[in-house]
Amino acid sequence: CQSRIAGTKRNLFTAAYNAVAHRYWRIRHELATGNVVFETAADNGGLPGSWIVRFNEQWDNASVPPGAVMFEIKGGTWQPEVVAPGMVIFDNVRVARP
Question: What's the CA gap between 50 and 39, in Å, rounded?
Answer without folding.
Answer: 10
